[in-house]
Structures are given as C-alpha cells and as structure tokens.
Amino acid sequence: MVASALTPLRPAPPVPHPHAVKRVDSQLQQLRARQSFMYWRERSHRSTVESTHKRVLWFSILRSIVLVLVGVGQVLGVRMLFLKRGFAQSPSYGGGGGGYF
Fold this sequence. Notes:
By secondary structure, this protein is mostly helical. The chain has helices spanning 3-6, 18-85.
C-alpha cells in the first residue's frame, strides 16, 4: 500500500470573491467609525456627569453650612428673647436661681 492512497484528497481553499472582501472591509470601516463615535460620546457624557457631581457636592456643603448657621442664629435669638423678658438668668450657668437655662 502506498501512503498517498490512504490520505483523502482535500478540496482547494475557497477563493474570496472581491465583492465580498469589499463588503467586509466597508462593514469594518463602519464599525470603527461607530466605535470612535461611541468612545467620544461616552467621554463627553462622563465629563458632564463629573462636572454635575462636583456642583451638587459643593451646593450640598453650602446648604449644610447655611442650615447650621440658621440653627445657631435661631438658638441665639430665642435665648436673647428669654433674657430680655426675664425668664432666664445670665448665661453664666453657675449658681442656683430660677430660670429655664
């Protein structure tokens, strides 16, 4: 027996059609363009989100500071009101005596 008689014949590899190659190349170019567009769009949107996040953070900090200042102002205002009307002693907190504070 001869070795060539045992090996099956292989068909020749298919030759791509020039039109099919152009179509695949065109599709790859479209895909690259779409990926580039998506990359830049995502980058732009991320920049917008990060900028908005910074502004919201600083607005929240400012709002918290204003809230604390308003609370301190209200406490001081009520204390002055009680002191003027004679409901409390001076804010020395020492020595006995009547008063609400």
